[in-house]
Design brief:
8% of the residues lie in helices and 43% in strands. It has 312 residues and is mainly β. Strand 17 and strand 18 form a beta hairpin.
Length: 312
């Protein structure tokens, strides 16, 4: 069996946080249930970013070729495990993933893209993950090695909990049409906020997910999920943001002095992810008839004794 280009996609998703959905049962997710037996459980989209929905999340640990381990976000250091005739969530804080000792935690993923895959145990190649609607459990099914299984419950979709929408666009501008330098002060929000999730709930649970999923290199995702957008358009810029950007939002002030005749355009990277909005640090585009520069807010100069303008 060939794993196609899905290997490079899995490699790009290393350490990102995903959900895994059985294709046969809409609205159901692979569930690290009670840190013991794997289940499939229903979760409405409106609840997917609630603090109690962490059971839907899995960390992909890419190992080699099309081989991965799946670690529960709800129960750190617990890994998906085909154990005899059940699929369990096994605790192993110091698991050597690449060695023979850790083979129980390893799975191979087969499919043309991440929207339709079969998942095979590496420890026992005749055992494949299967979701059973009647009992709401995930258990191994037996299948020969000539082809991947096609029966109901054996096909899954791997995706982010939400698509990322981001843009880098102007948010304010100022034209100094005087004969003197002026000091422009710009107040803006930086960080992550939500209208539906309390910040105190999200800080410890979702900030890592947002940072990791915004930062993947989408150019490496060859076998992307059909109909689902992985990664951010400006992932390279998000990767250079500080960790604080992905935690609680705050208001900060940037100051810059503008020479006569210059036009300052303030740009900001803004991303949306489920119930969350992320505001990055700002960039400045300073133009006049002779010069065009791009500056980051870390290069802004604090000035005084100049005519002062506040942009809010």
């Amino acid at each position: 069996m060939k794993s196609s280009n899905i290997e490079q996609s899995l490699k790009a998703l290393n350490n990102t946080i995903v959900v895994i959905k059985p294709l046969s049962y809409l609205g159901q997710y692979l569930d690290s249930h009670d840190s013991y037996i794997a289940h499939i459980t229903e979760c409405p989209n409106s609840k997917l970013f609630h603090k109690d929905s962490l059971w839907t999340r899995w960390i992909i640990h890419y190992l080699h070729e099309n081989c991965i381990c799946l670690e529960s976000v709800r129960y750190p250091d617990h890994y998906l495990d085909v154990h005899n005739d059940s699929v369990r969530i096994t605790y192993s804080p110091d698991i050597p993933l690449e060695t023979l000792e850790g083979i129980w935690s390893r799975f191979r993923v087969f499919g043309d893209n991440l929207s339709n895959v079969s998942i095979q145990s590496e420890r026992n190649e005749k055992r494949w993950l299967k979701a059973y609607k009647s009992s709401l459990i995930v258990a191994p099914c037996y299948h020969d090695l000539e082809d991947v299984p096609q029966e109901e419950g054996t096909r899954f979709k791997i995706q982010f909990p939400a698509e990322i929408l981001d843009e880098y666009s102007p948010v304010a501008s100022y034209h100094n049409d005087t004969n003197d330098e002026v000091s422009v002060e710009y107040r803006y929000s930086i960080g992550t906020e939500s209208k539906t999730v309390e910040i105190s709930q999200h800080t410890a649970t979702f900030s890592i997910e947002i940072q990791r999923n915004f930062s993947i290199d989408i150019k490496e995702l060859i076998s992307i999920s059909s109909g689902f957008k992985f990664g951010a358009t400006y992932s390279n810029m998000w990767r250079h943001e500080k960790a604080d950007t992905f935690t609680q939002s705050k208001t900060v002030t940037a100051d810059v002095k503008i020479k006569p005749g210059e036009v300052v355009t303030i740009k900001q990277l803004i991303g949306k992810y489920g119930d969350f909005t992320v505001h990055s640090s700002i960039g400045l585009e300073i133009t006049n008839s002779d010069l065009t520069n791009n500056l980051l807010d870390s290069n802004l100069q604090k000035v005084s004794n100049l005519p002062h303008v506040v942009l809010v």
